[in-house]
Structure formats: C-alpha cells, structure tokens
Design brief:
CATH architecture: 2-Layer Sandwich
Number of domains: 1
Largest sheet: 8 strands, antiparallel
CATH class: Alpha Beta
CATH topology: Mago nashi protein
Length: 157
C-alpha cells in the first residue's frame, strides 16, 4: 500500500526520480520547520528539507537527535525550476501578516529558501496567521510544494 501511495504522490507531483545526481553537493535549497505551540521549538521540531541534489527529506528533531526520513528525489529539471523561482524572491523584505485574530498556543512554521547563499524566510504560519513576503508570487507556490511533502511525511511513507 505504501508503494502505491508513493507512486501516486510522485506521479501527481510529476517530479520524482531515483537516486542522487552525480557531481552535486548536498546543501539545503528549501526548508520548512514547525515547532513551538505548547512546547518550545528547542525541545521538538519537525519539517521538510529539499536538497540541491534533489533529495527530499522529512525530519523530526529534539534535543537528543535528528531523525530523517527520505520521501523521494526530484529530477534535475525540477530542481533547476525551483532555483529559478527562488531567485525571484526579493531579499530584505519582511513577512506581512493579515490583520486577523491571533492565537498563542499553536505551533509556528517557517518556510526558508537559500538565495545567493543567504537564508530567506519567505513565509510563516504564526499565531494562527499565514504571512508572506510582499510581491512574491513564488513564495506562495514554494510554500505549497513544501506543504505537499509535509502531507506525505505525515502519512509516514
């Protein structure tokens, strides 16, 4: 059953393949981290990492260890397209949140990308509100991709 779910997820996303691509270093390209809520983020966090090699990993981290689960591998063309989208994100912008009611016991999720060697926080879910950097359509699309892999990770594939 797990193999069928993974096959469906890969064909639905149209960018899974096998293996790591030769000659590529493995640095994080996109990452999401969720932590906090009723517990400090330093005690426990989880999230998704997409590496420049195409590897997609889910992780659970606590003070003692980080446990990673491989979710699949993206093709070189998909990684190239992600890098193009990331390059359009404006540096130095602060996340803008909508003026809506807030809550204070929900976890916080941050969405980060590597842009020209710098880490850019392009979206965040905090106090029950979702915010993005302004004028960046790519931020919403990159968030959706990371959220899709988070769903796969939650299914414990």
């Amino acid at each position: 059953m797990k193999t069928h779910l993974l096959s469906f997820a890969c064909s639905a996303f149209l960018f899974c393949s096998q293996g790591v691509f030769a000659g590529q270093t493995d640095s994080v390209l996109l990452q999401t981290t969720t932590g906090g809520g009723l517990m400090s983020p330093e005690m426990f966090s989880r999230g998704i990492k997409i590496y420049t090699s195409g590897k997609v990993m889910g992780f659970n981290e606590n003070k003692r260890a980080e446990i990673e689960t491989e979710l699949g591998t993206l093709t070189p063309s998909v990684i190239a397209n992600l890098q193009k989208e990331i390059a359009t994100l404006p540096m130095g912008e602060k996340i803008e949140f909508p003026d809506t009611p807030m809550c204070y016991d929900a976890p916080t999720t941050t969405y980060e990308a590597k842009v020209a060697g710098e880490t850019l926080n392009f979206a965040q879910i905090s106090a029950c509100r979702t915010g993005y950097i302004p004028n960046a359509y790519a931020a919403t699309q990159l968030k959706k991709i990371l959220d899709g892999f988070e769903i796969m990770f939650n299914l414990n594939l």
